[in-house]
Design brief:
Jelly Rolls, three-stranded antiparallel beta sheet, five-stranded antiparallel beta sheet, Arc Repressor Mutant, subunit A, 52% helix, alpha+beta
Length: 298
């Protein structure tokens, strides 16, 4: 399902305001751009990297690039969120170097981080999100076009980044997990983060965490909306994508083994199902992107 079912536009900042579209069959995914996610209302558990979060209205999440993430909203409750995707390279082109690096610092240092906004900061953030929506519509709808709406949208977005930077001057302590069930699931995710590249069985996870296999399996699916092994395979595939991006010279067999797939055929089958192309095709695509960037710098 498309994340941004809005009008077409070519700005390097993609933005969706108060989206309430049902999140049908959510899957784990990652992307090379940074993301700002703001939770307006609903009931949602969010998995990002090796962490699980139970969201409350006013929660804002910073996401750094290729980290695997997935929301799990309650199906019978409206799920309202605003999202902005942006390429950090755009900030480095649009702003003085020191300013760009300063605004990207919360994403680069804290990486995947939740800020629970309250009071004036929450009101200010929601005003900025509403302004971004108005200016985006003005920039893309000919009948309501306003002079310099595109430029004003970018300025408002930079202002939002300054608010985020201010919030991160004194990092907000993460909220504690709200139930024993979520603590168990967090322990599973943390264990898999350490062992995803090794042979892993449901029995080995259950033994490590002192739970029964049946309880562990049912609990993980209930809290996250996915199975333990769906999560594990997605984690392995995401790491493979990162390795191909960093060095397309690695062979498919090398990468597969390094992320926990000892058999190349199994790796290729799971990778294609998750990404839509074979590992070798993805590797060649990353190599071509690197050549294009290198030629552009010459």
């Amino acid at each position: 399902m498309a994340v941004f079912p809005i009008v077409q536009w070519s700005h390097p900042i993609d933005f969706a305001y108060r989206s309430s579209a049902p999140y049908v069959n959510p899957t784990f995914h990652s992307h090379a751009f940074y993301e700002i996610y703001y939770f307006h209302e609903g009931q949602c558990t969010y998995l990002i990297g090796d962490r699980i979060m139970t969201l409350s209205p006013g929660d804002l999440i910073l996401m750094h690039g290729m980290t695997l993430h997935r929301p799990h909203p309650q199906a019978d409750v409206p799920y309202v969120r605003s999202l902005a995707h942006f390429d950090p390279a755009y900030l480095r082109r649009a702003l003085p170097p020191e300013t760009a690096e300063s605004l990207l610092l919360p994403f680069d240092e804290l990486r995947n981080y939740r800020i629970s906004l309250t009071g004036e900061r929450r009101e200010e953030t929601e005003r900025l999100l509403a302004d971004l929506h108005i200016l985006k519509q003005a920039a893309v709808q000919p009948e309501t076009a306003r002079p310099f709406a595109y430029e004003r949208f970018a300025l408002r977005f930079f202002e939002l980044l300054y608010v985020i930077k201010e919030c991160c001057l004194q990092p907000v302590e993460e909220q504690a997990h709200r139930s024993e069930r979520e603590r168990h699931v967090q322990n599973v995710i943390s264990y898999l983060e350490k062992t995803y590249h090794e042979p892993v069985t449901l029995a080995s996870i259950a033994d490590e965490l002192h739970l029964t296999k049946t309880y562990l399996s049912n609990l993980f699916k209930d809290v996250t909306g996915t199975t333990v092994f769906q999560y594990l395979y997605n984690r392995r595939i995401n790491q493979a994508k990162i390795l191909f991006r960093l060095d397309p010279g690695h062979s498919v067999a090398e990468v597969g083994k390094s992320v926990g797939f000892p058999h190349a055929a199994h790796f290729s089958r799971v990778f294609k199902a998750a990404v839509g192309c074979t590992p070798d095709a993805y590797r060649r695509k990353m190599a071509e992107q690197q050549r294009t960037l290198a030629e552009a710098d010459i």
